[in-house]
Task: structure prediction
Amino acid sequence: MAMSVRTLCLGVLSRGPASGYEIRKQCEEGPFRCFFDAGFGSIYPALRKLVQDGLIVGKEEAQVSKPDKIVYRLTDLGWQAFLESLTELPGADRLKSDFVFMMFFADYIDPEHLGKVIEKRLAWYREEIARMRACAADMADKSESPLGESFALGYGLAVYQAAERYLKDNRDALIGSVAARRRQTTVEAAE
Amino acid sequence: MAMSVRTLCLGVLSRGPASGYEIRKQCEEGPFRCFFDAGFGSIYPALRKLVQDGLIVGKEEAQVSKPDKIVYRLTDLGWQAFLESLTELPGADRLKSDFVFMMFFADYIDPEHLGKVIEKRLAWYREEIARMRACAADMADKSESPLGESFALGYGLAVYQAAERYLKDNRDALIGSVAARRRQTTVEAAE
DNA sequence: CGTCGCATGTAACCAGTTACATGATTAA
DNA sequence: TTAATCATGTAACTGGTTACATGCGACG
Result:
C-alpha cells in the first residue's frame, strides 16, 4: 500500500464526509496528527483527482456567516478502492528526524545549547502526550468507536512516552559528559 | 537546521573520509540506519554540489580487484558549515507510517490478514532491535566512542522496544475484537 | 556463464512544499 | 482597523525516487 495524500483523503472520508479544509484540520488536530501530515497544496489537488477518478463526489454547501464549502464523500467505487488498499502490505515506515541527527553529533554541540534543544523536545513530547490522552478520553466516551483508532492512538502514545522517558532519564548524563569532555579537551589544548 | 541529503553527507564525513558508495552503506547498515535514508540518486548529486561549494574535496583512490573510488573528506569550510548547522534548532520530526495508517482502519481489515501484517511488523522490529543491540555492543568496545552516537542509538532502541512491546501486548486483543465485531455484524445482517 | 558486489553517475519523473491570490466574516 | 478563522485554489519550486547506463572482478 502506497500511503499518499490520496489514500489519506480516502481514509479520512471513510470516517464521514468532509471538506478539504476539514481534512486538513483533522490531520492537524485529530487522532491522525502524529502520523500524517498534508498541506492544502497537496490535499486540494488530490481531492480533485479523486473526483475525476470517481472515487469521491463533492457537494457545495452554503454556511451561515462562513464561506461556502465543498463537502466530499466516498462513492461505492471509493469505498472499494479504500478497502482494497487495506488488503495490501504496508510499506516500511519512514522517519526523518532532525533531532536525532543532531543528538548523534552531540559531542560537537555546546552543552548549553544541547540542553535547550533537549528541553524543548521534552516539552513538545509532553504536549503531544497530553493531546493524545485527551483524544483517547474523547474516544472512550463514545461507545462503538473504532477499535483501530484506539489501537493506533495507543501505539503512538506508547512510542511517545518511551521517547519522553528516555530523554528525561538520559539527558543529564549526556549533557554532563559532553561538558566534561569539552573541559578536558580545553585543558589538553592549553598544555 | 534543515536535514537533507546534503547535511547527511556532511555528518557522515565528519566521522571520517568516505566514498559515495560507503556513505550509502552507512545509511543502510550503520548506526544511521533507523533515522536516515538516501539512495545513490540523491547522494552523488549532493556530493558534487558540496565539492562545488568547497565544503568537501574528493580524491580518486585505486583499489585492488575493485573499481576505483572517490574518497571525500570535509574541508575547513565544510567543518565550519557542519558545526554551524548544529547550532540551529532542529525541525519537527516527520513520521510517515503506512502501518499505523492501516491499523487505524483495522476494523475494515480481515482479521487473518491483520494478524499477518502485525506479525510481520513485530518480526521486523525484533530484527532491528537485534541489529541495534549489536551496534551498541560494537560501540562499547571502542573507548572514546562519541557520546552522541550511543545516546542516539539508545533513543532509537527505547522507541523500537516500546513499539515492539505495545504490538506484542495488544495484538491479540485487537484481532480478537475485530473478529468478534465482524461475526456480530454478519449475524445482524443475516437477521 | 551468469549474477552478485563494488563503484559512479544521469535523466525523467513525481510527490509534496511554499508562497501566493482571493474573499468573506468575526473578534480584539 | 487589524488580525484571525474559514475556505478554495494555483504555480513554481524542490527534493528525492526510480530506472537506466556502464564496467570490472569474484564466486559458484
